[in-house]
Specification:
The structure holds 2 protein chains of 2 kinds. Chain A is mainly alpha-helical. Chain A has one domain: Orthogonal Bundle (MetI-like fold). Chain A is built from 11 helices and no strands. In chain A, helix 5 runs antiparallel to helix 8, helix 5 runs antiparallel to helix 9 and helix 8 packs antiparallel against helix 11. Chain A is globular, with a radius of gyration of 20 Å. Chain B is α/β, with parallel strands linked by helices. Chain B has 2 domains: 126 residues, Periplasmic binding protein-like II (D-Maltodextrin-Binding Protein, domain 2, 3-Layer(aba) Sandwich), CATH 3.40.190; 98 residues, 3-Layer(aba) Sandwich (D-Maltodextrin-Binding Protein, domain 2). The relative contact order of chain B is 0.20.
Chain lengths: 225, 260
């Protein structure tokens, strides 16, 4: 039974991290582009807003999400009006929480990549007759690939290690919201230290492997360039 | 210049007050680890105790399981007010607690509670209805109130029926949060959490009959670190006294030792 619970948690964590990372990249890329290019007066406030999850303790963020996602909260009203129901205690709710929580980790590397490109390549593309959207996809995005990759890895590993937000809005439902980190915490609190050690070791090895892989791929890519 | 004089005067007065207040026994400070369900009454008990004795208390609230792990690994607490009886027994067996300084300070009551004033009826029949989407309980592996909730559902023969609609809080405080925020429509929580000064604070509730689950007896334990701490020992005495019991009673706790 314990093995099944562990496998469920591992599988769920990977699923959560994958889905969150994909959404994260889709959301973070336009924001990063806008932040890199805009001269709007709103820039500073948007940048601060995006970075805020970095500062707030995860449990605090989780608590506000719980309130906001609830049937009386603004997000809860919205999701109910859209026919999605209330998202707290659901996988979709965890994805939402993870995306918000990891947003700064995804936006910043992509934004740096766009900024380091400068305005010149896009201007050249424009003089060659490329329309802005076309130029964005064929020039800017490929240029920012290392940034996108860093963002993806950071977003993924951050979600794997995420705990506070999940604890607050998850409700510890097996197969739905019980991820590795909350499972380890449960084991520790129940004084099942053996299970906790095993799962924690698994998590450390896995995270190390992912980070190692990425960093070696990146240094090889760097040499090729 | 006058300002300065004022400051000096205030400081002097303050020092004088300290000197007057200091009782025959020097005031001490004790750190108390408190189970989440007892956070409310503890808030009332601390000032009562402090003004009566001059001692000072520092309170840390957590789930019984988490506090146990911390105490086992050297957390600097003098007294442990647990949410159950097995955890203090384990600490005693491990030699972390002081023999002879352990007793049941209160027995908790489990209630089914909703923030909606009309949802919960006097018999708990709402559990069989479809009028709710989520039922919050504390994690039964960690929290005594969670265990009692599962026993109650078992008594009603409803475990399988409600399983897919259960959500678990890490401790009883978080469980209440799930219900109070409306994310869960119903929850099994401690009576002490929804009762204050002898009255229910909001919503609707049903008191689960005592016989439907094992009694939620809560034990206090003096820890080795607090062995020679007068504040710790005095607080345990205070906890047994009539004044403390009156406060606890208003939060819905009971005292089976008196055989009511």
């Amino acid at each position: 039974m314990s093995d099944g619970a562990v496998l469920d948690a591992v599988w769920l964590t990977l699923k959560l991290a994958t889905v969150s990372t994909l959404i994260l990249l889709l959301v973070a890329t336009p924001i990063a582009w806008w932040l890199a290019c805009t001269r709007s007066r709103l820039r500073a406030s948007v940048a601060a807003l995006v970075t805020l999850p970095l500062v707030l303790p995860p449990t605090v963020l989780g608590f506000y999400l719980l309130v906001a996602l609830g049937p009386e909260g603004p997000l809860g009203r919205l999701t109910q009006a859209l026919g999605l129901g209330v998202l707290s205690f659901t996988f979709a709710g965890l994805v939402l929480g993870s995306v918000i929580f990891s947003l700064p980790f995804a936006v910043q590397p992509i934004q740096r990549a766009f900024e380091s490109m400068g305005a010149r390549p896009m201007e050249v593309a424009a003089t060659l007759g490329a329309r802005p959207l076309d130029a964005f996809f064929s020039v800017a995005l490929p240029y920012a690939r290392p940034g996108l990759m860093t963002a993806g890895v950071l977003g993924f590993s951050h979600t794997v290690g995420e705990f506070g937000v999940v604890l607050m809005i998850g409700g510890n439902i097996p197969g739905e919201t019980r991820v590795i980190s909350t499972q380890i915490y449960g084991y520790v609190e129940a004084m099942q230290y053996n299970e906790a050690h095993w799962l924690a070791a698994l998590m450390v090895v896995f995270s190390f492997a992912v980070l190692f892989l990425v960093s070696s791929i990146r240094s090889r890519a760097g040499r090729l360039l | 210049m006058r300002r300065r004089l004022q400051h000096v005067l205030i400081c002097g007065l303050w020092l004088a007050m300290l000197a007057v207040r200091a009782p025959a026994m020097p005031a001490a400070e004790a750190r108390i680890a408190v189970a989440a369900n007892f956070a409310g009454p503890m808030q009332r008990l601390v000032p009562l105790f402090e003004s009566a004795t001059g001692h000072r208390l520092l309170v840390a609230v957590g789930s019984t399981g988490a506090l146990h792990a911390q105490i086992r690994h050297g957390a600097p607490f003098d007294v442990f007010l647990a949410g159950d009886t097995t955890t203090p027994a384990m600490l005693r067996a491990a030699g972390v607690g002081v023999e002879g300084y352990s007793f049941t300070y209160a027995t908790g009551r489990l209630v089914l509670w909703s923030g909606d004033p009309r949802l919960v009826d006097g018999e708990g029949a709402v559990l069989r209805s479809r009028e709710w989407r989520r039922l919050a309980i504390a994690n039964p592996a960690l929290a005594p109130y969670g265990k009692a909730a599962i026993e109650t559902l078992g008594h009603l023969g409803l475990i399988e029926q409600v399983r897919s609609r259960l959500v678990q809080g890490e401790n009883i405080a978080q469980t209440l949060q799930f219900v109070a925020s409306g994310n869960a429509q119903l929850g099994f929580v401690a009576l002490s959490q929804v009762m204050q000064d002898g009255r229910m604070t909001a919503g609707s509730m049903w008191r689960v009959p005592r016989e439907w689950h094992a009694a939620i007896a809560q034990d206090a334990l003096l820890l080795q670190r607090g062995r020679d701490n007068p504040a710790a020992v005095a607080f345990l005495e205070f906890l047994r006294g009539a004044r403390a019991r009156e406060v606890m009673q208003r939060f819905g706790y009971e005292f089976p030792a008196e055989g009511s």
